[in-house]
Amino acid sequence: MQKRALILVAAALVTSSMPGAQTMDRAAVLREVGIAHGMLRGLQYTDAVTTSQFQATGMQYIVGQSFKPGGPWPAAKLTKYNVWINYAVPGMRIDLERTNPERSNPGSPVQGGGGLPFAAPQRQILVVGGTRAWNETMLPGGPATPAIGQEKDRAAQIWMLPQGVVKAARMAGEKLVVGMEGNKLTLTFPLPEPASSYTEKVRLDERKLVEHVEVMVDNPVLGPALLEADYDNYKDPDLSDIPFPFHIVQKFRGSPILDITLTGARMYNPYVVVPTPDNVEQAYAANAADPQSKVEMQKAGPGVWFITGASHNSLAVEFKDYVALIESPVGENRAAPLFDAVKKQFPNKKIRYVINTHHHFDHAGGLRHVVAEGTTILTYRDNQPYYEKVLASKGARPSVEAVGEQRVLTDGTQRLELYKIRGSNHADTMLIAYLPREKLLVEADLWNPPAQPNAPPPGGVALAEPLNLWANIQRLKLDVAQIAPIHGRIVPFSDFRRAVGQNSTN
Fold this sequence. Notes:
The protein is 22% helix and 35% strand. It is α+β, with helices and mostly antiparallel strands. It has 2 domains: 2-104 and 114-284, Lipoprotein localisation LolA/LolB/LppX (outer membrane lipoprotein receptor (LolB), chain A, Clam); 291-499, 4-Layer Sandwich (Metallo-beta-lactamase, Chain A). The N and C termini lie far apart (83 Å). The protein has helices spanning 2-15, 21-36, 151-160, 162-172, 278-285, 332-345, 361-364, 367-372, 384-390, 464-476, 493-499, and strands at residues 40-41, 46-47, 51-61, 75-86, 91-99, 122-129, 132-136, 144-146, 177-181, 184-190, 199-204, 210-219, 223-235, 244-252, 255-266, 296-301, 304-308, 314-318, 322-326, 350-355, 376-380, 400-403, 406-410, 415-420, 431-435, 440-443, 482-485, 491-492. The model is unreliable at 1-24 (pLDDT under 50). The protein is elongated, with a radius of gyration of 26 Å. It has a 13-stranded antiparallel β-sheet, with helices on both faces. Strands 16-17-18-19-20-21-22 form a 7-stranded mixed β-sheet. Helix 2 packs antiparallel against helix 4. It is built from 11 helices and 28 strands. A hairpin with a 3-residue loop joins strand 18 and strand 19.
């Protein structure tokens, strides 16, 4: 009966030419899809679902943190993945806990970034409510930090869930397009605010349940990239006649990013609230600047400036005829003010080079801006073909120069040395920079100085990358007095020696 109804609806869409028929057909399809998802009830077919909640375990793959450029994203094991949704706000809270993946060879290292390997289970609480986004700590509803700029992508996750699909399609009104792929119905429509710049395409199975969702989203490195979700193993978890998939897989640009199996769910309006914390509302109401736009310049030597103010640092080095910038991270929101600040500091010199320490997305996120500026990217040789492909725009190739084991920039007075790091499990493309006159080492992710100078040194798995950095410094025979990290403050080299247990001056 359902299959016959599906065919009749599809036929009506194709053959009807009466004025207003498309609107009627949309309404008919949406009613059938809403009924299939247990949402439309009573004589008036009222949408009875306003909230839901589910728990799951599985795997999360950390986007943009592969060991090699273009390689698989590293996996983390999700021991907890709890989600609360309020479709009326709309809002969503994701409370997850993740740890190191289980490996077939326990002795093999965990490779890649994103904080791996974790020294202890890591908890994150990610929230969106209306047009606000924030992160919570300690517990749901706990202290909050505004996540300005994350609203769009987090809100899209609400409308990619099956019941969210139905609601967003209804809100799209005449912008909803109903189509067919083979013998299956498709729905295509723009998402509600704050994700209204995204369009969602949905494929329904023979029961009119959502089985596949696609949204083209924005990514600082990849540009427009396809986010997909697949749903199967539908169940009625709380006997409310509201089916929900117990297996969810998400992919980003064809690579898996989430694979979870539900352990339970409550679909018929559990108590879910996502009130915006006062400090978050105040930050948005004040039209607060994106935190990544804050740029502070700190002189680190003649013609050398350490650039801080946000989550990632950079270093500007002045030469006679140009400026070299170490790192353009995060995204356009960081790269644009970073370039503006460097141009203001050196008004008569072009930024000729941007040195990219490694290919992880948080460190490569500003490279599209670099390309737009006409600046040449210096990066380890294995990154060159990857960047030339993903950063290409309208057929134009970016200017990317390969760095091998060593590269030196000099004008006879200023000297900047680049070296490939060997043996890192964080990234296979890692470069460090060294200024011999200042005896200053620039490194990313290999050692992050603690916020407190007297904090205890790292131990266990957290010590592996610092020890490897130490071994490379010894191999290269670098005379280091200070370290300028891409994360953290400039510190004396003695702090690093202490961290790796090398207090001796020999």
